[in-house]
Amino acid sequence: MTRIITRAALNSAVAKWLEAGWRVGAPKRQGESLIQYDWLDSADELVVDATQRPANSIKAFFLPRTERLFAYQGQGRQVELVPTPTPTQPRVVIAAR
Question: What is the pTM of this model?
Answer without folding.
Answer: 0.75
